[in-house]
Amino acid sequence: MPPRLEIAAIALEKIPMSGWGRDRFARCAVAAVLSIILFVPVLFVPAPALAQIESLMAPHALAPAEPVPGSGTPGASIAFPAPLARPPATPFAQASPAVPPGHVALMVAARYGPNAPLISAGVIWRIYAPTPDSPGMFRLVKEERAGTQEFVLPPGDYVVHASFGLASAAKAVRLRSDTVREVFDIPAGGVRLQGRVSDIRIPASQISFDIYPGSQFDTAQRRPIAQNVLTGDVVLLPEGTYYIVSTYGDVNSVVRSDVQVQAGKLTDIVVTHRAAVITLKLVNQNGGEALANTQWTVLSPDGDVIKESIGAFPRLVLAEGDYHLIARNEGRTYQRDFKVINGVDSEVELMAQ
User: Fold this and answer.
1) What is the reported pTM?
2) Beta strands 253-261; 240-248: pairing state
3) Residue among 279, 269, 267 at smallest CA distance from 244
């Protein structure tokens, strides 16, 4: 899967600074954060690597949720794990760490929000210089992946960027002589996706998901923030409303479902498709061998082209409904109507006579 670009919600916080550098440093920090957004890859956590985000969910929430009635089109089934434990009073050790002369310790931690649990793993910490170099790029000073992290740096100004999947936060910090401790609020939640037809799970190779910000009922044009998400992947998002576009096969079985992402919680989504796998065959007699080099056109009852293909027996995933089929072979044309019933995979034969 190609790298994805991060589109993150950034909260830039300024620390108290002397008058000479406050505005200048803040402007540089904003520019640094913008450059970070353009070049930071998104973190997707495959199901086997759930230990990287164990603090996101209660232990019993590791297994996918069973389908329950939802409110989508036809709807996503959503299960929320139990609330997480309260966070400790401070994520940092009270004693200052030992640092070499001429350096200062920066201790950072991330949490799901004020008075919310800490994110124990999977945060990508990046320390940037506050001003660009001659090519206009902001120099990356250090990078680590952890929950809480300690950096030892020379005194000076820096921009600290913390990303957790598609959610992130940034702060401008000034290191002088004493240890600096910063806590970043990243109100992120996770979604994990799968698709079903009736009570049968759709194989991962036959279904994909795109995630868009906002509700499907909003009319504004938006780009997906995550594409071709696979079954079982955990996608980390800023809390808020999103809609999932689920595509089963490559024809017309497409379902849209809204989902509310809550900070610190994993949401299991089961999208229900009403469709079936249809095999097309042009034969000389019932149950006969399919004729090769057949050109197929599947149309809606109104005559709109749904799918075109060439082959002896193409297999298509079609949404439930009525269709008209045209087959062309050796200069002759054959036609018939057929119906797709939800969950009933079948062969559709056309008689070459």
Assistant:
1) 0.73
2) antiparallel
3) 269
